[in-house]
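Here's my example:
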Amino acid sequence: MSNFQHPTPAGSLTIASVDTGVKVSAQYNPKELQIDKSVPWQKNPQANKSPDKGIQLEFTGAEGRSMSVELLFDGYETGVPVIPQVEALNSMASPMEPGSTDENKRRPPLCVVVWGATISKFICVIESLSTKYTMFSPEGVPLRATCTVKLKEANVLSMAKSDASGSGSQK
């Protein structure tokens, strides 16, 4: 028996784009949800010059959390393709308007993840998306897919800009 359970309408994990309105709700609530928080520390450059002070670390700045979740979409028994859900996730992981003159449209959208009391509101971007198709119709239409979505917490987004010398550093 599967560990996945059908979610209740109000209790399903949902990933939605704040910018475009695209939304994907989990067909089955995930069996696992991983949230990581990185706390960056760096060795003090003066530490080797004074061995009697011991190990010295400096906090180098706050990092956002990251989340990883696996979503199962299954239309095998009903013959319903899973392409719409996968395409919706793909659209949230792709630039909104790649050729736009507005640099704010040339980036992927800002998203929000909500799942009942577990995640009230996780504002983020999709960092990576991996899709594995595992069942097909006789015509080759995908009827089952597992999508692994990695998300990175973010409140404000911008396009990386190159400086005048073209070295590619951010302003």
About this structure: DSSP finds one helix and nine strands in the chain. Residues 46 and 141 are 61 Å apart (CA to CA).
